[in-house]
Amino acid sequence: MPVATTDDPGVPAVTACSTFANALDSASTFYGDFADSIEGVERPDYGDPTISTTNTSGRTALREAAASAMSAAGTPGLSPDIANPMRSWSFGATKLLLKMGLRTGGQSLNDTATQLNTDATNAQMACAAAGTHA
């Protein structure tokens, strides 16, 4: 039985951007909980049960989202204009989860999260330019 194929360049974009959007939703929810728990604190007390719990769930969500984003970026036929910011976001998410695991301070986390937001915006804009959304 032949495999269905398409030459429509929008199909890979729809698939990848949908996967990326799901990754962003998960990461933002769980990282947001962690960020809220350390808001305004330069040196978070990682022994605090709330911070410890949200740190763990945030890192787990970032790890899963980074893998999903990298998978989305590898969608066959996907334009590099879309794939590259997804890859950058994936690397940034990995960097952020490592900093969380190493229990770094507030400004270092903020700087990495700011770059992650820039990468997410770039990927979303590329998806929009392709006629879909992330």
Query: Based on DSSP secondary structure assignment, what is the total number of beta strands?
Result: 0
SSE arrangement, N to C:
HHHH
Shape: elongated
Number of helices: 4
Oligomer: single chain
Structural class: mainly alpha
The profile of the biggest β sheet is: none
Helix content: over 70%
Query: Any idea what the radius of gyration is?
Result: 17 Å
Low-confidence stretches: 1-7
- Our estimate of the beta-strand percent is under 5%
* Average of per-residue pLDDT values: 91
- Quickly count the domains: 1
Roughly how many Å apart are the termini? 33 Å
What's the gist of this structure?
By secondary structure, the protein is mainly alpha-helical. Helices cover 75% and strands 0% of the residues.
Main attributes of the structure:
134 residues, mainly alpha, 75% helix, disordered N terminus
Q: In words, what does this structure look like?
A:
It is a single chain. This protein has about 130 residues and is mostly helical. It has one domain. The protein is built from 4 helices and no strands. Helix 1 (about 10-40) packs antiparallel against helix 4, helix 2 runs antiparallel to helix 3 (about 80-100) and helix 3 packs antiparallel against helix 4. It is elongated and about 50 Å long. It starts with 9 loop residues before the first helix and ends in a 5-residue tail after the last helix. Mean pLDDT is about 90; it is low at about 1-5.
